[in-house]
Amino acid sequence: MTTMTPPRTRRAPYAVGDLVTGTSYVQPEDRASEQPEEITGHIVQVGSGWDGIDAAQAYVWVRLASGREQQALIRDIRKVTT
Fold it and tell me: 7-53 pLDDT, tens per residue?
């Protein structure tokens, strides 16, 4: 009898509540009126793109101190260690 192991899925490198810093992401069609900016805040939502599908576009939403939220690609942020 052979036991099948379930496929391993990769988890997102960030979780809701993590404090991160980096650069915000601006959709290409919005770049005429908005530019990426340096951000620091807590992750409030983990987006799509994790398990190798669209991994280059994997993103999170970050809540800034002002209360505003910004989208950021995982490749453009890093955890803040306290």
Answer: 555 667 888 999 999 999 999 999 999 999 999 999 999 886 555 55
How many angstroms from the chain centroid is the CA of residue 18? 10
Structure confidence by residue, pLDDT tens digits, 46-72: 886 555 556 667 889 999 999 999 999
Q: Tokens 């099948």 sit at which residue?
A: 4
Report the alpha-carbon distance of residue 56 to residue 9 in Å, rounded: 17
Selection from 40, 33, 46, 49 nearest residue 78 by Cα: 40
- Asked whether 26 and 53 are in contact (CB, 8 A), the reply is no
